[in-house]
Amino acid sequence: MIVVCVAVLVVSFAVWQSRVLGPWRDDGSPTYEQMVEAGRRVYTRVRMTPVDSYASADELRGALLHAVDGIQSDPRAGEQIISQAADLLYYRFSQRSPEAYATSRESWGYRRFSTAEMRRRMIAEDYEYIFGEPYPGDEQIEEVYRRLWLSSVERDDGASRIAKLSATGMGAEIAFADRLCLENMGEWPRLSGELGEEAWHGKGSGACRSWFSAPHGTLAEGLQASGDCARAALLGIVIEAENGVRYPIVMTFYQLEPGEAWWIAAYGWMNADASLPVVEY
């Protein structure tokens, strides 16, 4: 299951994620924390490459196309998805300019959410929680974006900043599903491969906060407008954060009509410490 972070009254976006994604229930199965620890032992077997060793997004794209397992089931879709994912990862984690990142996202056809929408996504509450100072007002939205974007991968010793990522199919996998509909939007494909499904998925996941949307809006809005179901893909990559902790990051993608573009629905993590800082992307 992919848990999508949504706005919750009173509790900030960042605090809400850390509170709700804890151990689930005591039914004799491993706890949330036990699954995370077991996963970390498995992730030590994954060969990693420093993100900073890639000189460009194109170089990272080539490495991922070679490494990702499961792309053989749909090479054309896999190449489109991985090309977009490589751009997002490079411009989010290998360079430090929020403006360059925004330009990259817009080059793929994404647009910035309105300030009103970002307020609904609780940027004002999180700004005050993170920086300990009043929200400067909607007229300062560009500075708010810049500060949140930069700080989200710097907090907690870089727990959310990708320092290394998997260089082999053991720790990089994509899975597809033919029908993602309004009534089953939480049922994304599952990863398994050499790591195994439990190591990939654990007992929980979290999605981060996007500042960009497809031209049609969100996934739900796209499904409503099309009146049909979409193709779906889940891309997972085991990473090592700047603080030395390993866990899988995940990106979910969808395609509303055959032959059309693939759009990212969410960026987040699986089987990791639930208190990870929310990445602004």
Q: How many discrete structural domains? A: 1
Largest sheet: 7 strands, antiparallel
| Strand content bin | 15-25%
- Number of discrete helical segments: 10
User: Helical amount among residues, as a percent range?
Assistant: 25-40%
Strands, total number = 9
Radius of gyration: 18 Å
Shape: globular
Contiguous low-pLDDT stretches (5 residues minimum) are 1-25
Summing up helix and strand content along with how strands pair, one would put the structural category as: alpha+beta
SSE order in H/E notation? HHEHHHEHHHEEHEEHEEE
Distance between the termini: 21 Å
| Average predicted local confidence, pLDDT | 90
Folded structure, characterized:
The structure is a single chain. 42% of the residues are buried. Strands 1, 3, 4, 5, 7, 8 and 9 form a seven-stranded antiparallel β-sheet that branches. The chain contains ten helices and nine strands. It is globular and about 50 Å long. Helix 3 packs across helix 4 (75-93) and helix 4 packs antiparallel against helix 5 (98-107). The chain has helices at 13-20, 32-43, 57-67, 75-93, 98-107, 115-120, 123-131, 141-151, 197-201, 219-226; strands spanning 48-50, 111-112, 162-166, 172-180, 205-207, 212-213, 230-241, 246-255, 263-270. Helix content is 35%, strand content 19%.
